[in-house]
């Protein structure tokens, strides 16, 4: 393999108008953290065991499952060897080992342990946490059932208290009640927090949490009454043994119900919980969603890195007869595919940071019992989770398709990124459900506004006075841009709210009226999220204290993000004349100009994320741009090439040949 | 497995306002053909060998490759046993065996043989065709190179004539010149038509076709100088051994150049081809693109069948406290995802039929040497190929995501449909390149219009007089709809054409001027294709002679397709005021009404395609709606469940446990 960098890519790097290192420092929170990240990654990638791992694309499902446990082991070992205690640094190890893969036992650390910490009594924590932290007990969190997803009250698994023996009897009364999907449930965990419907003294008391042993701690064999297994191959994340679980009248001791809040006494008397439990659970949910938003930036940035570097080295079609073929990045259509997505990676990065900050503040208020801002944060994170995951997943596919035929090969790394990105549209709250939750809150705000109540700051732009005209001109003043996005969002909230009222007045019940408005509610929620992202991006690039060349490059990206969003949704911005035809035409020209402005910095803007070749795992996205040699090497390594004549030849092909055919 | 049909699904079928059988007859070209399709499928699915095939989702790459040859064998056998000679009926066998998979040796029949037929001399045909038809020789078609896709003149493989030995020397001078991607090239074929740059008497004469042997006809071993292999795992179609091929100075006899048109004499004298060869090649390309368009309808219809049936049986969230959970199909957001796509399947089916008819007419003209309509058909098929494949692939993902978490499992069948749909956006002409080809022709039409020349009928709406207002009202008159789509298309063509002129006047060269307008050119091409589909759909439902209830259901679908398209692109319809705010708001209400009108027939509209459960290979899309039992069965069959305790336990998990962890 040539070690030199492809000259096309080298030239791109030299052309940049700013120093990429400064941007990298900014992305990773300073020069020191950047260096730590590099050092840790180098330690991982130079580890002898790492070198022996079979390439992902050539792994069977068995290999993937086995590797993911091996990697969990390696992570533990490396963390020890490198003496890493910081959580963020531990995360770098996992990210390096398991880029776009499920990290083995992740659910144990992220869900099983925290649930016990949050919902367990002091006694229960003393019992379970040491076992969990030393991995004697390895657990998962089982909520979703085969027939039940988002709607918690629909869960069917029962936990019926038997005062005679002081036990709960866990049961799966129907096929739809079996737990389905929990991570690592199939083959890996020996324990589980189960969400089940509590029944005691003949009455049902809603959904509560129970710790249930599934496998023998020593032999790992399934315990009596437990039917558990892997749910089979999926679009992606095949290293994860997402599982199913049926209970056949399984008895657990009374103190396996997590009883920090709700309680069942020895005689079966139920004591209701305060709402604290729910609120704490909310906290975890908000935290996970905030984390997902930040994650979408990295995922999309990986795809952009691959597609942008490839667009610099791939050449196609001579510009002048007999002349050299053009870099595909010089085609406006290619720029239009990639550059708004590069802008989006930065937009989402800033958005993730901002809601994380938001979360930290509000969470400390929650812990103090101040719940005032919870609904606002909940509405915001629900919608942003949907908005960012959907845009990122679609964006990854745009990147993949922008790589032409080679984008379809696993050699590109892009299909793997897509399958790991798209699942985020579904888990932790299905996106349409998320938008509708946000929208419900927006309509509430609209009604508060009508009642002249003060609106929460994030949504203070909601109004029914929408008669103005935009003063947006070719200077692309940021305030005018924000005003246009606010106008669009407010208009769509108003339209959805009025539609609900219309149906209510027409005699429909609230469910029907809302349902008949839900297309418009989703539009409103999207517009509000989009506005939040645009505003955050603008605030960030105008307030940031950084090298002026970097600032200027980010400002161009920010303008591109905002302008592209207005073009993509031009109807929503212009329908009532707030933006007029002349302004939209001006934006179309500006879009073309901005793409040319980004062109010179495109490679450096993706380089700044400093994804290692190992993380990208892509022949097309290599730092050195030697894509063709890498593709050739990938092809030669294909297991089908282990023999010159494949074993199927004698079995089928020779048969076909000698029999002739009417094909 | 329960044999009864899920009552929710049964009720949906009973509710339909028309007889689905009539629609099925229509789709498959009459009651007789429908019955033949059923009979052939039954014969395939009841075949004992068919029953032994390993389920697709549980296959390794090796299994997939081997199975695809086995299936080719089975197809041959079944075709013989069932005494099938009709090509269309042969296709039903393959479709039944290889739903959404590559059909083994497909490229041999579709590309290798036809190329020899079209470009070979009589002598060459006498030599190769009997060998090819009896499968002594199995071939593929090698055009694309590692570094070269769409741009034919960029191909680097050389065929240099040596008059001394009267041979051509085939060579791959660079790494980028190796052939890459041809179907079945890696392990299966023993022969190949190679597109290579002809060099004779020291001069290069462009790209020509050569028949090259790759493997020994008896032993199947690679011949000297040939380096050939599989290119490795891909996003989908892993049963196909797409291959790479390098020539190391491989000599072939002079008469292995296909010489019906261009010729090289014994002394190396080159005789140029008339343009007939190119035209015939064009013919194949147009035929393939027309076939792709028709195919998008089936692919999308499969995804719609799965998602729609699932939406009828899946229930989520009680509508009234304590009441039953609603069928998810009753949610407007779900209807908005699925029903416009159901409409699209019908729209694309009619579109495919129409361009096939168009192709047949024009092709017979071409054979007679009348090339008048070729550019029009070429522009049309290029754009429609891009439009239909992109919409279908996106639509399949919408269906998959509409099935929530279970859509992510291979049990849903949807990931497989997606990976087979999305590749069509790239092969046989990358979509953006296709749109730009169409757009170039549209601009040509615009200039013809300016020069007062007659426009080809398909594009006669192109004009620069665009001052009117639409009279569209809530009656949704079809003529007003067509007029609105024509106005939008004409406006976008005009805008793109003017933008090119603007840059030309500003001193840019034609390439730059076109490149700087290419975003707008793509918009124009999409709008023209969209219009063609809408118009075709409207013409079909207004002229069709069929049972009035069926006609009425199709008419609702047609309106939904048109209205949804206007809403999705409202900016393009309303920016210049052709449609005004009131009209757009009316369309938004109509969208909601039309979704409710489709609701009652949704299941029957997808049932009418009569995809068998075997073709769909989906737990969610089963005809009987017993989705949960099927998912449970799928899970239990997962190979990871072959043992209770997985072999990785001792190797990694036990290790982790006993060492404890800082995870």
From the alpha carbons, calculate the radius of gyration of chain A and give it in angstroms: 27 Å
Q: What portion of the residues of chain A fall into strands of 2 or more residues?
A: 5-15%
CATH H level of the largest domain in chain A: which superfamily? Butyryl-CoA Dehydrogenase, subunit A, domain 3
Largest sheet descriptor of chain A: 6 strands, mixed
Helical percent range of chain A?
40-55%
Q: How would the global form of chain A be characterised?
A: globular
| Class from helix and strand fractions of chain A | alpha+beta
Task: Please tell me about this protein's structure.
Two copies of one chain form a homodimer. Chain A is an alpha+beta fold and 663 residues long. The first copy, chain A, has two domains: 358 residues, Butyryl-CoA Dehydrogenase, subunit A, domain 3, CATH 1.20.140; 166 residues, Beta Barrel (Butyryl-CoA Dehydrogenase, subunit A, domain 2), CATH 2.40.110.10. In chain A, 55% of the residues lie in helices and 9% in strands. Chain A has 23 helices and 13 strands. In chain A, strands 1, 2, 3, 5, 6 and 9 form a six-stranded mixed sheet that branches. The first copy, chain A, has a three-stranded antiparallel sheet with strand order 4-8-7, with no helix packed on it. In chain A, strands 10-11 form a two-stranded antiparallel sheet. Chain A is globular and about 90 Å long.
SSE layout and pairing:
The structure is a homodimer of 663-residue chains.
Chain A: H1 7-15, H2 20-27, H3 31-45, H4 48-51, H5 61-81, H6 87-97, H7 106-119, H8 122-133, E1 139-142, E2 158-162, E3 167-171, E4 179-180, E5 191-200, E6 203-213, E7 226-230, E8 243-247, E9 250-253, E10 263-264, E11 270-271, H9 276-313, E12 315-318, E13 325-327, H10 332-367, H11 374-402, H12 414-422, H13 431-450, H14 478-505, H15 510-515, H16 518-543, H17 548-568, H18 570-574, H19 581-599, H20 602-607, H21 613-616, H22 627-636, H23 648-659
Parallel strand pairs in A: 1-5, 2-5
Antiparallel strand pairs in A: 2-3, 3-9, 4-8, 5-6, 7-8, 10-11, 12-13
Helix pairs in contact in A: 2-3, 3-6, 5-6, 7-8, 9-10, 9-11, 10-11, 10-16, 10-17, 10-19, 11-12, 11-13, 11-16, 13-14, 13-16, 14-16, 16-17, 17-19
